[in-house]
Amino acid sequence: MGNKVRSNSQYWLKIVIIIVILWGVFFRVTNIDKKIYWHDEVYTSLRVAGYKGDEVVTTFFNGEIITVKDLLEFQTLKSETPLIYTINSLIEHPEHPPLYYLLLRFWQDLFGSSIIINRSLSILFSLLIFPAIYYLSQQLFNNNLVNLISISLIAISPVQILYAQEAREYSLWMLSIILSSLFFFKSIKTNNISHWFMYSLTLSLTFYTSILSAFLPIIKVSYIYLIGKILAVQTKINFLIFTSISGILFIPWLVITVINFSILKDKTNWTNTQQSLELLANLWGLHFTSLFIDFGLPLYHWASYIFIIFIFSIIFYSFFFMVNNISKNIWLYLLLLVLIPTLGLILPDLIFGGIKSSMTRYFFPAYLSIYLTIAYTLGKKIEQKSQTSSLILIIIFTLSIISNIISSNAQTWWNKASSYHNAVIAQMINQAENPLVITQNLDINKGNIISISHNLKPETKLQLLNTNTSIKAHPEFKEIYIFNPSPQLINSLEKLYHQKLENKNYSLYYFNILLPKLNF
Question: pLDDT tens, 134-146?
């Protein structure tokens, strides 16, 4: 009788897990065209279309009146654009290895350059994560319930869904991390040459997807060193050979990176910004709670601390349980997978200063370890008839679904930080009858004005200024909006239009040139 009850409960739990996985699919594909196409995605489209940032400035940031439609031409891949244009554009941005962008280029060749098409490729990679993590879990734990929980946790994870809906490389990066881990374990178990080739290939794919994949060979070398006594000599030799092959395959982009190191340094200089330890510590907590809970609360909201305590308690207990209940060759890898990337991001910021560790997306390798560890712990505890573990799993599912319902209906979210208010800005401008929008090539304005333009009416007029552009008055426009101007530009415009600018919030300023009557 007891076995029958246990079997029935697991049967219904598996039904719940399947429903949760389907919810994960639904959240990935819903409202993908409604969310603001933010600064970084704008640069994805520029790179793929074969344009360089300087071309946008030269063409449009000259003080002439243009339309939104004109500006958005630079977001569209033209059928006659040679592939070499895309490659040359990518070379000028060595901080982003080219694999994702080249794949998106081919994707756009097939289907077009709309926002839905651009984001759909990331969704496809995110969906491919489901079978990939299933087989990795099977390789590690050989337990069907644990495998299903692994899929469900990553399927419904709010942070995975956020980046699945973004035209950037992070879903592909997670997929490649999972595949390289899968073939790594297959290789050291079987020492099969075909598995080693697949390991080398998938590890190389991680390199060509993110420069932060540099953590992965460190993890694997550390792992092989620490469990070396139980491995055959030939296995260790093959590991060194095929890991080296992955490095050799990456040499072409490594050479490009070295040649353009000054560009790389300039493009990543923002990560050296100084922030308080209090802010960074809060962000570290939210990085890991966003795996399962993300209500979009303010950074220092009291509920956020409750969620941090709840999630970290589950994480720490899960690692404790795993270390005490599974062989070292499994738990050691997962422990290194969470510790090396996490410490590799946090410690440099603590020692030298900077904000690299403030970026949630940089922690993806650590997240994989956490999904698998929690899945193993909850799965094994549920098999041991732990009602508490079943309840925790249901709570995680519930909180994740609520999180995704909230974020799926929002036009913007914290992952679009530098463009967070762009949807609201566009809405304010669209309400005007005959507006002119002015901005200048300052800081990240170039990417953000294009981002805002995706939500503006196509006929909306823009006046884009470079730092040395002379400004002309345009009294034919009823309302003038100025986005994120410098103090010098504010002063120049107020003199030109004989008015004081009104701050509309969100870095948007405003003139109504009908009030008062102007004499030009």
Answer: 999 999 999 999 9
